[in-house]
Design brief:
By secondary structure, the protein is mainly α. It contains 17 helices and no strands.
Length: about 260
């Protein structure tokens, strides 16, 4: 089994190819074909949520697959839209809901809401990326977290954005070698600690972001070794093998500066 660093590098080395492989999966292809063939026929919010196959696909695309059952909740969000800053979706801490409502903006566009690119190909593209991340997480949660952080990095504007997202904050804590218990500390102190150790602007720089995620995947592997047969320390002093921490990971670790 490949370690966290190597798995992440293989996926991101040619992300287009990785996404194409996801799209070619029979189940994904069938669901996507159905979605594209039918979403444009949806004219109302009620029609949307009643077609469970369509609605579930769209919800998963926005990372809300586990809330696909909460149809009354989503109907309220969709009906109020996002034009008013005090609308239901805008007031929710989790910004995924507002993003979903903005893509399926029945409040603003009525019957034509599902004809816009955001509701069609843009949603399909998000679904592919979401599926790629979920597939990666089935074998290694660290790879999923790295892919998620890579996707969200450009939208991070302050440390409170990170702290409001359990996945993003987990990545930062792991990269910095902070224990999970640190998440229970005062939120302002957490933000201050992150700011002292990292420059948030680095997340918009592809090269610096890559170095940060190398740090994360390396630290994740140390804390959650892919192979339980060898400890991280013993692997570092052993001859390179295909089990445990790979040669690539060891080389990456040597380049890190903490």
């Amino acid at each position: 089994m490949l370690d966290t660093y190597t798995s992440y590098q293989l996926i991101t080395k040619d992300i287009t190819k990785s996404l194409d492989q996801v799209e070619a999966q029979p189940v994904v292809k069938r669901d996507t074909d159905y979605y594209l063939a039918n979403i444009g026929n949806v004219k109302t919010i009620d029609d949307f949520v009643k077609d469970t196959r369509l609605f579930t696909y769209a919800m998963k695309a926005y990372g809300l697959g586990d809330m696909a059952y909460a149809k009354a909740f989503m109907v309220k969000a969709l009906k109020e839209g996002v034009s008013d800053e005090d609308s239901f979706a805008n007031k929710l801490t989790d910004k995924r809901y507002a993003a979903f409502v903005k893509a399926f903006n029945f409040a603003a566009h009525g019957e034509t809401a599902t004809l816009f690119p955001a509701a069609q190909q843009d949603t399909v593209d998000k679904y592919m990326r979401q599926t790629l991340e979920e597939n990666a997480g089935e074998t290694n949660e660290g790879v999923r977290l790295a892919l998620y952080f890579d996707r969200k990095a450009s939208s991070i504007t302050n440390w409170y954005d990170v702290l409001a997202d359990t996945a993003l904050s987990s990545v930062v804590r792991t990269a910095l070698g902070l224990p999970d218990s640190f998440a229970s500390a005062d939120i302002d102190k957490q933000a201050q600690a992150f700011e002292q150790k990292l420059d948030i602007a680095d997340f918009t720089d592809p090269e610096k972001l890559s170095k940060f995620l190398t740090r994360f995947t390396s630290m994740w592997e140390i804390n959650n070794p892919t192979s339980t047969a060898q400890t991280s320390v013993s692997v570092l002093f052993a001859q390179p093998t295909t089990v445990g921490i790979s040669t690539d990971l060891m080389m990456a670790m040597q380049k890190l500066r903490f």
